[in-house]
Design goal:
By secondary structure, the chain is mainly α. It has 22 helices and 2 strands. It has helices at 2-19, 30-37, 44-48, 56-59, 66-80, 84-110, 113-125, 130-134, 136-162, 165-179, 188-197, 205-211, 213-230, 245-260, 280-284, 287-312, 314-317, 320-333, 352-371, 375-403, 405-423, 451-459, and strands at residues 270-271, 275-276. A hairpin with a 3-residue loop joins strand 1 (270-271) and strand 2 (275-276).
């Protein structure tokens, strides 16, 4: 146990070192809107109203996320104001908590400490966490929802093994909290059903499905609230559905490579036929060679592991626990796979345990199989696999610090808010502030347009002021 605790300490420190710039990233864009809609008149009724289901026409905000949005922004703003550090500490703490929960879940499923530690470590270190950590508004929500999702899975798994009913009821309550944090949790009943199927015989499948009926009933109620009571905006094109196999496979492919550590921004530079826009070099520079070299090695190790096990240990590929992970990944992101204009790697967080669990299941079992005959070759294979994943994520994280939109807009928003407060310590009610285009202003990114337009993006219009 001490050995595992020490490894986790190293893992936490490594993640903190990789992502320490997050601590000093200011708010931007949607953050200011969330602050605005989470404020109350200070009464108990006003506070409780944050947990109500309000129509989009009433508040201009979609989806039912009271725990991770209204409650979070209301509480932290009243405690800390516009100090981003407490928010950022919460995000990194949630990531550490989720790493621990991933370890506990994998250990309960596979009873393999090395596999569980590797899964938890790369869940925390992967560059796909750039989005949920730098983009506070969306990232905090998926991180909180993932905590409840993982806890629900652990509690339900404990119930399946012990048959103690308190675990069933605890998992049900945790599921409700997950739904109240993010709509990605809607896929959880199906994931729980697959988890049950991976542990019981076929004769018990129907019984397990009936036992999860309360989860599906709550899901139906939740979907009714989200779709019919709250509703959506017809003007927001990014939320328009495009249902089809091609859309699903395209989205699934992008989420897969993002999960492995490819920077999210690559999607903006890929033409049809997998042709790269040469402008990518303008942003990636020398990172280009490192990222793509590491990525191809990563794909090679996964492909080799899959092929090797297919020829030598085929039964491992049809193990029900591995198949559970294989189906968990696409099901976890299924709610957003038909939104081709709204892909983002922060949606990946609830699916990452399945991705990394599956990847390291393949690699670790390949390593153990080779080790029986060729220990040096096995060790070399493991080291190459580990380092290629690590280098890919580290390089992509460093690139994300300077290119990910939430990181760059946070710097601009902080600068603008400070300048306005210095020039106008107290703004009278109804005051208007105009930002005039200034090509010489030093804190801009030319690709966003003029400085006034960039200010509008970073500050989310009038919301920050």
């Amino acid at each position: 146990m001490k050995h595992v605790s020490l490894l986790f300490l190293y893992a936490y420190i490594t993640v903190l070192l990789f992502y320490q710039p997050v601590l000093f990233t200011y708010f931007s864009q949607d953050d200011f809107f969330h602050f605005k809609v989470s404020q109350t008149d200070g009464s108990l009724t006003g506070f409780l109203n944050l947990f109500g289901a309000h129509s989009f026409q009433e508040r201009g905000i979609a989806f039912y996320r009271p725990i991770s949005r209204e409650f979070l922004y209301h509480t932290f703003y009243n405690l800390f104001g516009l100090n981003p550090i407490p928010f950022r500490l919460l995000q990194l703490t949630l990531l550490a908590v989720n790493m621990t929960l991933v370890y506990l879940l994998m250990q309960k499923i596979f009873s393999a400490k090395t596999l569980s530690i590797l899964t938890a470590f790369f869940f925390g270190i992967t560059a796909s966490n750039v989005a949920p950590l730098f983009y506070l508004a969306g990232g905090a929500q998926t991180l909180i929802a993932t905590s409840f999702i993982l806890l629900c899975l652990i509690l339900y798994l404990e119930f399946l093994k012990s048959k103690i009913k308190i675990y069933y009821f605890a998992s049900f309550i945790t599921y409700i909290f997950a739904l109240a944090s993010h709509e990605l949790s809607a896929s959880l009943p199906i994931i729980l059903l697959l988890l049950s199927f991976s542990l019981v015989s076929k004769k018990q499948y129907l019984h397990e499905a009936v036992r999860l009926l309360p989860f599906f009933i709550i899901l139906s109620l939740y979907l009714y609230i989200d779709i019919h009571i709250i509703g959506f905006s017809d003007q927001e094109k990014q939320y328009q559905l495009s249902v089809g196999v091609k859309t699903f496979m395209n989205s699934l492919s992008w989420y897969f490579v993002w999960g492995l550590g490819i920077p999210e921004m690559l999607i903006d530079f890929v033409f049809p036929g997998f042709k790269l826009n040469p402008d990518l070099m303008k942003y990636w520079g020398n990172y280009f060679r490192i990222i793509f070299s590491a990525f191809f090695i990563v794909l090679a190790t996964i492909a080799f592991s899959l092929t090797y096990l297919l020829w030598t240990k085929k039964a491992l590929l049809f193990d029900k626990k591995f198949l559970f992970l294989l189906f968990w990944f696409p099901i976890a992101i299924f709610p957003v796979t038909f939104l081709p204009l709204h892909k983002s790697s922060y949606y990946l967080v609830p699916a990452l345990p399945a991705l990394w669990g599956g990847v390291w299941y393949l690699i670790f079992n390949t390593y153990r199989s080779i080790k029986l005959k060729h220990q040096r070759a096995a060790n070399l294979f493991f080291v190459i696999s580990f380092l290629s994943f690590l280098i890919l994520s580290f390089t992509s994280i460093k690139l994300g610090e300077t290119t990910y939109w939430a990181a760059t807009r946070g710097k601009l928003a902080e600068k603008l808010v400070k300048e306005v407060k210095f020039a106008y310590p107290i703004l009278p009610k109804g005051a208007l502030i105009y930002f005039v285009n200034d090509p010489s202003y030093p804190y801009v990114a030319q690709d966003w347009g003029g400085t006034s337009k960039q200010a509008a993006f970073a500050l989310n219009g009038e919301d920050a002021l």
